[in-house]
Amino acid sequence: MGRVRAFTLVELLVVIAIILILAALLFPVFARVREKAWQTTCMSNQRQIAMAFQMLIQDNKEYFPGVMGDPDPKVWRADIANNADAKLFNCPSTNRGGTPDDPEVAMNFYLYGVAMGDVKEPQKVVVTADASNGLLEDAGDVDMARHAKGYVASFVDGHVQQFPAASSPVIWGSGDEGTLFSFGALRETITYSAADAAAGADSAVEEGGAVLLVNDSGAAITAAVSASGGATPPGNGLVLAGADLNITPGKGKAFALYCYTDAAGEKVDTTYTFGNPAGTAKVAIICRKPRPLDGQPLP
Fold first, then answer.
1. What residue spans define the domains of the chain?
2. How far apart are CA 135 and CA 275, in angstroms?
3. Distance between CA atoms of 214 and 227, rounded to whole angstroms?
4. Is 274:212 a contact under the CB 8 Å cutoff?
5. Beta-sheet pairing, 105-108 with 135-136
6. What percent of the chain has pLDDT over 90?
7. Residue 276 has pLDDT above 70, yes or no
8. Per CATH, is 190-288 categorized as 1.10.10?
């Protein structure tokens, strides 16, 4: 009988090395495939939650659950409980086991008490996003690196998207730079682009209304803010007069406009001017003071 040839030590080491190299190449691929499956599950969950909001509003009430200023993050989960299974509040990417009482998705706080029909651009307004605190009040609440350095968000119109972590949403009233979708309802939105500024477009908004400044040009814009119309500037809602607004291409900033008050403490119409200090293109926005309704005096 012929002798059976055994593997030499060198051959065994070569085979082991090849196996280790293949494993090193394949394990990251398996991890990405697994994370993609988890991301798909999370997108499906948020899509169903967004649909639950729509069913709730259409069947039972006109407004999104909650009242602006209400800090209770459980309000919206209780209201959609009949239309949303408990498992929808879990995201497998966290391996934490989210529940309605300890969710891994949060609702946009700025939709509290807002009628769906009042949202002018439903495809841009966030309803839910990856988060662990129940409510979204600013971009820092979003878990932006949950899914392969990105996150999932649903919108008022029902669609769901995955975004890279660098795509931070524009936040209503914050002045923070971000991509062109918003946490805020922006019901009285005036959107100004770089092209509008070049054309010298002007408009007006009621006090508290939102203005979204968008840079649709290929270069960064540095715009100075100036205001006139009264002696006392508002204490919130707007970058102070004289502050610079640096907006990079494809980004935007959102503000709530508040009027100045005169020496008697009365609100006055206030003109805010946005424009590049070095150029001639400027946009004027008039913040209109609150008007009485049906001839009744303001309180």
1. 10-166, 190-288
2. 35
3. 20
4. no
5. parallel
6. 21
7. no
8. no
